[in-house]
Amino acid sequence: MSQEVNNKVENRESALENPEVMVEKLSNFEHYIEKNSKKLAMLVGAIVLAVAGYFGYQWWSGTQNDEAQEQMFSAIYYFESDSLKKALNGDGNHPGFLSIAEDYPFTKAGNLAHFYIGAIYLKQGKYQDAVDNLGKFSSGDILIQPRAHCLMGDAYLEMNDLDKALEHYKKAALHAPNKYFSPRYLLKAGLVQELQKNYNDAINTYGTIIEKYYDSQEVSEAKKLKARLEQMTEGSN
User: Fold this and answer.
1) pLDDT for position 37
2) pTM, rounded to two decimals
3) SS3 of the chain: helix, strand, coil, percent, to 5
4) Are 149 and 130 in contact (CB under 8 A)?
5) Exposure letters 96-129 (e unless 16+ CB within 10 A, then b)
6) Which of 6, 41, 87, 229 is most deeply packed, by most CB within 10 A?
7) Distance CA 169, CA 218 (A)
8) In this structure, are residues 210 and 226 in contact, taking their beta carbons and an 8 Å threshold?
9) Of 230, 146, 231, nearest in space to 189 by CA
10) What domains appear along the chain, each with residue ranges and CATH number?
């Protein structure tokens, strides 16, 4: 440590040990408080309001989500019963997914409502509406989020947008990969690549299913499709 640094440390320590210096510093601090009392009061008030607002929003959001979840029971029942119009629009006594998504936009239930709305529109052949709503859904769930991407892929495929369809099938397969669903999404991706005449890419995709998900239900189909493509590409060379 240099002499200059030592001197600074010693001066600071001596200042702390000197009562007169401490009194002077406290006096200066009190003077600063008096001079800036309004600004400090405003700052403290702003902090208190921010903290209160945060916890108030958390409470409000929680109650809104609980309320929205209760409202969703009937809509989910109608969805599972394939009563799609009632699931969307309600039955007169209970709201449908459209109202829940609009009335509870910042809740988990409102977010999930967009998934159901998208799935319903896909079944009804309203493909762009399906894409729009599925795109508003976002979740870290390892099952529902990949399913949403797959449904978006299906909608884009129906609209003959092969690039977007492939993009979402790949997203579905790569989100929390597992042997139960990822091979299914990869199989769809491979079929789109065939439609694009990207046969080598399709062969590689089917190969991924065979090698990585060798014990999945889709392996048998992947082997057939891969062998057919390999034979076709070899014959064209």
Assistant:
1) 65
2) 0.73
3) 80, 0, 20
4) no
5) bbbbbbeebeebebbbbbbbbbbbbbbeeebbeb
6) 87
7) 15
8) yes
9) 146
10) 139-237 (1.25.40.10)
